[in-house]
Amino acid sequence: MSFKDYYKILGLNSNKVSIDEIKVAYREKAKKYHPDINSGNNDYEELFKEINEAYKVLSDAKSRRKYDRSWFIYSERKRRLQQKDRDEKKTFKEKLMDILFGGSIIKKQEVKKAKEPVNGENIETEVEVNVVQAFNGTSKKLKLLAVDGKTKTFNLNVPAGIQDGDKIRFVGEGKPGKNNGTRGDLLVRVKIKNTKEFSLNGVDIYKEINLAPWEAALGNKVKVQAIDEEISLVIPKGTESGDKFTIKGKGYKFGRGQRGNFYIVARIVVPKKLSEEQEKLYEKLKEIETK
Description:
With 291 residues, the protein is an alpha+beta fold. It has 4 domains: 6-59, Helix Hairpins (Orthogonal Bundle); 69-114; 123-193, HSP40/DNAj peptide-binding domain (Sandwich); 199-276, Urease metallochaperone UreE, N-terminal domain (HSP40/DNAj peptide-binding domain). The chain is 40% helix and 25% strand. It is built from 8 helices and 13 strands. The chain has helices at residues 6-9, 19-33, 42-58, 61-101, 104-114, 131-136, 213-218, 276-290; strands at 123-130, 138-145, 151-158, 167-170, 186-193, 199-201, 204-211, 220-225, 230-235, 244-247, 253-254, 258-259, 262-268. A 4-stranded mixed beta sheet has the order 6-7-13-10. A 3-stranded mixed beta sheet has the order 1-5-4. A two-stranded antiparallel sheet has the order 2-3. Helix 2 packs antiparallel against helix 3. The radius of gyration is 29 Å and the shape is elongated.
């Protein structure tokens, strides 16, 4: 089965685009190829299905990251094939020029090309921040070994709401160019790690809370500290371990002022040590249950 370039289907030339750009591209394409506008055109109908399929994959952070890995392999393979084709044509051209002019024109072109400015390569590195730091924004000192062997310190300002895998660019801090070419850039990839309290899944944040058996059985009202505020949560009667409560719009930041959901996962914990009175109550409960 041939690979579907979802970015190309939406009219995008690269995967270096934001979710807002994907949404805009989708709306433009969907409007143009909608079946209601192009009734009876089967080609447009199939294309509209592919547009919806592309948007479904690229609009979800988790499925987009998975797709991007395949897209990168596909793009690299395509680039190599194109380069191979150019090299083969160039080889044929060189042979022809050798026959006609003894290769003198080619040699002059090669000398001219050797003197042209060549831009320096980019340098990439990675830094870790936890989900709370990424949500609120943070600053870090980044020490790297420069090309000349000296250690250089960078002040890294991580903006609030940065996405996992996003890169922060330091212009002109990469490898030097040749023949007065521009220096490359330093690209710092930000990796977001979970904390003991909060776990990030796409744009949703998860948190486990411990409940006593009586809270789970009888229900209760508890205060839960979310990532940026305290939330009142009603625990219904008969709650079980693993039950999940959804607080919409209180998750991680994305887009323009948008946020994912905050999920609270119940975890029932039995006390390791019981008082004499507690033991009696549990024994009483046992008698009731076994009757």
